[in-house]
Amino acid sequence: MKITYIGGGSKGWAHNYFSDLLLQDKLSGELALYDIDQKKAERNVRFFDKLKRVNKDSVKSEWTAKMYPTIEEALRGCDFVVISILPGTFNHMQQDVHYPEKYGVQQTVGDTVGAGGYSRALRTIPAMRFFGQKIKEICPDAYVINYTNPLAMSIYALYSAFPGIKAFGCCHEVFGTQKLLAAIFDLYNLLDDEGKCLFIAGNYKEVSARLGDPLLSLKKIEHKTARTEIRVDVVGINHFTWITRAEVRGQDLFPIYRGYAEMIMQRNMQSFYKKMPLFRRWMHNAHFVKLSLFLKYGKIAAAGDRHLVEFMPDVWLYNKKKYRENGFVKTYVLMRKLREFLRGVRQWYNLHLASKIKLKESGEEGVLQMTALMGLTELITNVNIPNTGYMSGIPSGYVVESNAKFSKAGIEPIPVQTIGGEIGERIMTHAQNQRDFVKAYFNRDAEGLFAAFSKDYSVAHLSEEKKRHLFEELIAKNKPVLEDFLHNF
Question: Is pTM, for the whole model, over 0.85?
């Protein structure tokens, strides 16, 4: 088989894929790397070859890697296409996150929704349209796995360019929440039967005393429950996904999760905790938002806090003191630049100096999805695809995130009912905005883009004049890489 990796010069996601491919024993073939920076893709070919060479005793499958100078050559004859690109540059990312602050618009990530998410989409949509058209021309039957953010708008764009495309979006945020649930379950199991009752009752004083840990730390305990043991029902949209059922070995995890959430809220009110330095409180409060949301809405938010707050900025981000105290901080692009530089240093070291590069499974499910779609296994996992009626309460065509079965028959979404109330309204608003933004782009409708941008919760509170000025200025910041219909907006 042949896998085409668009963004094949990556030093992060691509390296994870290399290990996952080499450590499984069901698939073999060619990995075709394509990147607009050919030197990075060529370097990854050498890196892949060294991975195989120095780990020959643990490699379980036969794979070759090759760099292709054109996307047409890379796509020809492929079975799967992986898309993982950075739309624009780190400087563009800097402006996505921080420029809207001029108007009082606070963001923590700026890559999915909010002013930054829509700014990033201006660069992402044309790239996805191009990829979709090329896939239609060259490999229309290939499955397409997208990891690029904004993920939902990327999927909209791929299907708008090629309605018959077999594309889906993957995100590991649900995996992180499964790991959290597993860790809470392991903490709960450290107690005897009486202690477990106190845990479910949310009795912080007694449980913390019995565990000898006033922080209720999840990192210090021995983790015995694997993420994959946590069975969940998932509903929502990317980065605003919700778990409506969670079980492990037949046991309902919601009462245990509620007890933990109530105890964390009590812990945060303790005098010793309030006296801790702010950075230490951040370290122990990474899940404050999702725990608070559970206590209010009764469903488990299945994304990182920094993503969740951007879907509810009016609740969490307008009060700067509140979001600082509650443990989530902004994306600092300088740190991302540094991380990318260090990845490059590590890659150079591994290529030229290190005699051994250890293979390690990433925990992602991309290769498992491929294996299932080839008919060698079956897999149920969360996925982002257009709704075809399987998520009741959401219009067909909206890109949603839910569980689906992967098999030789293809991707079969598992029917689910969307969430109602305030959360359901926000899911609907964001999903509609994302769809309308992509639709306006394909129609070359600049005013339509502005209309969708204006409805986002992060800018909806601004005056019409400020909304327009902010949108105009974000376009101006992106102008060198935008299409001509936006140049005179």
Answer: yes
**Domains of the chain, start order:** 2-172 (3.90.1820.10), 174-325 (no CATH)
Dump pLDDT digits (tens) for 414-444: 999 999 999 999 999 999 999 999 999 999 9
Give the separation between CA 242 and CA 427, rounded to whole angstroms.
10
The CB density around residue 374, as the number of other CB atoms within 10 Å, is 17
Cα dihedral value 36, 39, 44, 49, nearest 10:
130
Q: 91: Cβ–Cβ under 8 A, 6 or more apart, which residues?
A: none
Encode pLDDT of 84-136 as tens digits: 999 988 889 889 999 999 999 988 899 999 999 999 999 999 999 999 999 99
Q: Which residues are catalytic?
A: 172
